[in-house]
Amino acid sequence: MVDAIGRARNQPSVLISTSGAGIYGDRGEEIITESSRGTSVGFLAEVATVGMQRDEMFKRQVSDTFPVRTALALGKDGGAIPWIRTVFQFGFEGKLGSGKQWIPWVTYHRHRCAFLHAPETESIHGPINGTSPIPVRNEEFAKVMGKILRRPTLFTVPEFALRMLPASEASLFWTVYE
Questions:
Q1: Is residue 92 part of a domain?
Q2: What is the distance between the alpha carbons of residues 159 and 102, in angstroms, rounded to a whole number?
Q3: Tens of pLDDT, residue by residue, the chain (178 residues)
Q4: Cys-Cys with 170: which of 80, 128, 156, 165 at CB 3.0–4.6 Å?
Q5: Considering only CA atoms, which of 85, 87, 93, 86 is closest in space to residue 155?
Q6: Which domain holds residue 113?
Q7: Measured between alpha carbons, how far is 150 from 85 in angstroms, rounded to an integer?
């Protein structure tokens, strides 16, 4: 893609890419901003790190790059709600492990707006976090999703059950939010 952009007659001036908020890894109670350093520990962080390396190659071809670090996008017209509904139907409707893990999230509408806002705003350069400014704990997230989906959230999905999943799948449920 880098070569194709270099050969293009009308080269784009802006590149908008996406990666996940999982790039920050487990930071405990630390407040995360766009200037926070990423980590390469964990499946999702590794994937996001590869994306950042790709973005560096594009910086030679375009005048500005905007990596949008996305979170779990939620909305009735799109996003992760259908996927979460399926997960809940398979019995994962309670909190995961201790439930104290932070879950970054964003409304589906705001998620889409993040991709339009960055290139139109001259003061923005570099990565932006496409997340709500206030993450929620997994325990609270499970309760709210249970109400929305009309499913009980009485049980806890034990940590050992999540750790039995392959690393790439377990990180979707556990490690990115620890």
A1: yes
A2: 15
A3: 777 877 888 888 788 888 888 788 777 788 888 888 877 677 777 777 887 887 777 777 777 788 888 888 888 767 888 878 877 777 777 888 888 888 888 998 888 888 888 888 888 877 888 888 888 998 999 999 888 888 888 888 777 776 666 655 555 555 444 4
A4: 165
A5: 93
A6: 2-173
A7: 10
Whether 178 is in a domain gets the answer: no
**120 within some domain:** yes
CATH code of 76's domain: 3.40.50.720
What are the angstrom distances between the C-alpha of 73 and each of 42, 82, 107?
21, 11, 5
Q: How many domains are there within the chain?
A: 1
Measure the CA–CA gap between 118 and 17, rounded to whole angstroms.
Answer: 11
Whether the full predicted model's pTM is greater than 0.85, yes or no, is: no
- If you search the block for the tokens 């990596």, which residue do you land on? 67
Residue 105: inside a domain: yes
In the block, tokens 């139907």 appear at: 89
Closest alpha carbon to 59 in 125, 148, 139, 114 = 125
